[in-house]
Amino acid sequence: MSLVGAPIYSPPCMSQQISPMTEQGYAPPTVRQFGVFLDNKVGKLLELLQAFEESEVVTVRAISVVDSSDHAVIRIICDNADAGRQILRRRQFSFSEVDLLIVELDEKHTLTSLCLYLLGAELNIRFAYPVLPSPKVEGAVALAVDDHTLAGQILRRKGFRLLAEDELA
């Protein structure tokens, strides 16, 4: 038997391995984030937040402000993404959308251990910010990661709870 011309096997790196859960269609729960572009003028953030508050059907569950001299990008997570999208469109805000993981934190499942586990899998955290407490969730963090599925699998195996949009209300 000749091995000439046979493909050379190289083991996949950890972030490329597919677990049986993925093969069975596992997808971690994700939550929609809106990135709202605002002119950096007094009162614009208030205007945005009042639009959500006046709706009475959407609650802002997390917010992060990335500021520059001319404009700001406001990252917002709501407890009802469809209604949030309608509000932003109706008020003619410029925005983008992206899915994030929401990970509950507690005494056993800390932000430090979360970072350690994702580092071990060579997963990059692009950005993170806290989620506001609610009756159902005491502490949580919103994460933008390179691979939602792999990050979700790793964190669930380590005992972290991943939250869906309906768990934020």
Question: What would you note in describing this structure?
Answer:
27% of the residues lie in helices and 30% in strands. It has 169 residues and is of the alpha+beta class. The protein folds into 2 domains: 85 residues, VC0802-like; 67 residues, VC0802-like, CATH 3.30.2130.10. Strands 1, 2, 3, 4, 5, 6 and 7 form a 7-stranded antiparallel beta sheet that branches. The N terminus is likely disordered.
Kindly report how far apart the N and C termini lie.
63 Å
Contiguous uncertain segments of 5+ residues: 1-23
State the CATH architecture of the largest domain: 2-Layer Sandwich
Globular, elongated, flat, extended or rod-shaped: what is the shape? globular
Write the element-wise H/E pattern from the N-terminal end onward.
Answer: HEHEEHEHEEHE
CATH class of the largest domain: Alpha Beta
**Roughly how much helix do the residues carry, as a percent range?**
25-40%
Number of helices: 5
Query: Structural class from helices and strands?
Result: alpha+beta
How much strand content do the residues show? 25-35%
Alpha-carbon Rg, integer: 20 Å
Total number of β-strand segments? 7
CATH superfamily of the largest domain: VC0802-like
Largest sheet, described in full? 7 strands, antiparallel
**Overall tally of domains:** 2
Mean pLDDT: 87
Question: What is CATH's topology name of the largest domain?
Answer: VC0802-like
